[in-house]
Every structure is written in C-alpha cells, then in structure tokens.
C-alpha cells in the first residue's frame, strides 16, 4: 500500500478509522514474502486518539454475527462463521475433536481367533469403528459401574472360513451383530456355585435394549465395509465387543469427527485492469482457477471469478511487478468452517453439541466468578 503524507489525508467523520487502518484491523495482507497485520487488535483504547471506541459490545456482536451454511450432507458440512474472533472458531474446533462424546468399543472378549492379525491389533481396529447411535441416550460408565443397558452396547462377531473353501475371506465391520440383551459370555465361576441360580455374564442388563423406545425402530449398527481381517481356509474369529461412552480427549476412537478445520475467507482484489496477454498469463498462474477472462468491448480482461477457492499460494504475485496488480488478503472475522463426521452423528448435530458444550463452559466460568 502506498504511503500517503499526513497533510494529504482527507478529513474523516467522527468515530471512523482511515481506510488503511480499517484494513489493517480487519484484514491479513498476504504479501509475496510473508503475511502482515496478522494480529487482532482487541485493546479498547487502541484508537482512542481518533475518537474511536474499539471495545467489544454485545449489541454489535449480535448484529454482525452470522452462520451461513454453504453445503451439508450426512458426512460433511461447510459453513461460514462471520463476525467472531479466531479464538472462538478454534474453541469450536477443539471441542469438536476432543469433547463431543460418542460410543466406541472399549472391551473386547476374544473367545477364539486363528487369524494372522494379533489380538491386540484386532481389538484396536474394532475400537476405531464408528457406531451409529446417539450417545446422548447413554450414560458414562466409571470403573465402579456395572455394564447395563444404559451405559453399554454389546456386539458379537463370529466368522469362520471353512477348510474346503479354497479362498481367503474378508471380515468386515458389518459382520458385527448387535446383542440387545447384553453379553452372552459367562463369567468364570467357582465349582461350588449354585447350579439353580441364573448364570452371570459380563453385563447386567435388566431389560433388552430393543424394548427401549429409542431403539425399537432404530437398531444399533456400525459403519459398514471396514475391513477387520482376512481369513484363510480353516481360520476363525469368535469374540464379543463392548462399547461405552467417552470423549476424544481420552482416546481418539471417541472423536466424532474425521477432521474439523477452518480458514479465513480469502479476498482477491485486482488493483489495476489486467488485459490482453497479462490476463491470460494471470489465469494460467492460478492452480485453482480463481481468475477468469471476460470479453469487454472486444478486449480480454481478467476478473476474479472464484475468490473463495483461493488457497493463498501466492503464485499470482510471485513474479516481480505483480504485487502492484493483484492484492491477496484474508478477512480476520470471517471463517470457512468444515466438519467431516466419522458417521456416528450428522455434522449439524455435532456443531450444535459443540455450541452447547461451549455455553456450559462459559456458564461455569461466570458461576465461579460471581
């Protein structure tokens, strides 16, 4: 940006910043060598000498804050968070990764396995399978709690490749069968146990989970088509898997997202009219086709057609002289947020839960300070 002498600056209305200061406050300048003005100016008296109050006001925040959904399906979601600080966007990201609970397999009881996959590796693979169930319907289970229909889900896996098959068979995640009545494996008992009493298993279900209204019409399933192992002729796997509720900060298997990330909205500005060969050269420079050419009065002129696609690779300003023609910036309070769900819960539900968790954290802080 060219320097302007102080006496040449125009007179400004009261409580307004000059254009260059307003841009430094709201934009990150992506120059050829390095980005500048990356910090957020949050001090309330930063512009007091100009009669501008820089303090955060709740009414202004409510007026400027917006959430615009760009695309959404069962697996991923892209939306814009407008009018917030990077710290809040990052708080949502961290909560989505580590604090939104899900159900995941925690205990694996292997009855028999002749697979080439070691038992501990098989158990680890089972733990990473997304379970399609709402974790809000279950309670957390502590070390002293007994597994029951409210805090545990039991799956059975029995897969055998007959000796005469002559081929290798693949064991998939959808071969896991839900056991709504709980574990079928008996606990080790003493020989003096009363034979007339009901045998005890690894869970204490008082009723079948199928009898609960939440699961009567929606049986619990897992994400299908995930390879667990491959069995040769004569090999067999028989096991029982118990899933409990947890959070990603305990183990990554409880994280509900494959990834959650954000980036500031790119802003691409043509400082000059770029025509003819320069326009064609600019279009070829960009690897993500941000620029396009339009015909105006018989002249070819470059235009910014897809600024949102810009990755700020800075190829368009890499050569000398192009920084005077093209300006690359990022908007500091506009974030493009992407959530990729593992499949356990829809992405819109995950974000809603993250908002609730952040709200609870704020209320806890307020309670402690009051």
From TrEMBL:
* Record-annotated DNA-directed RNA polymerase RpoA/D/Rpb3-type domain positions: 76-368
Question: Which top-level group of life is the source organism from?
Answer: Eukaryota
A GO BP entry:
DNA-templated transcription
Q: Which residues form the signal peptide?
A: none
UniProt keyword Transcription present: yes
Keywords for the protein's UniProt record, in alphabetical order? DNA-directed RNA polymerase, Transcription
Tell me the InterPro entries matching this sequence.
Answer: DNA-dir_RNA_pol_insert, DNA-dir_RNA_pol_RpoA/D/Rpb3, RBP11-like, RNAP_Rpo3/Rpb3/RPAC1, RNAPI/III_AC40, RNApol_insert_sf, Rpo3/RPB3_RNA_Pol_subunit
Output a single Gene Ontology CC term carried by this record. RNA polymerase I complex
Record flagged with keyword Transcription: yes
Recall the GO molecular function terms of this protein's record: DNA-directed RNA polymerase activity; protein dimerization activity
The UniProt entry, under SUPFAM superfamilies, shows: Insert subdomain of RNA polymerase alpha subunit, RBP11-like subunits of RNA polymerase
Family, according to the entry, reads as follows: Belongs to the archaeal Rpo3/eukaryotic RPB3 RNA polymerase subunit family.
Q: What's the protein called, per UniProt? A: DNA-directed RNA polymerase, dimerization
Q: What is the lineage of its organism?
A: Eukaryota, Viridiplantae, Streptophyta, Embryophyta, Tracheophyta
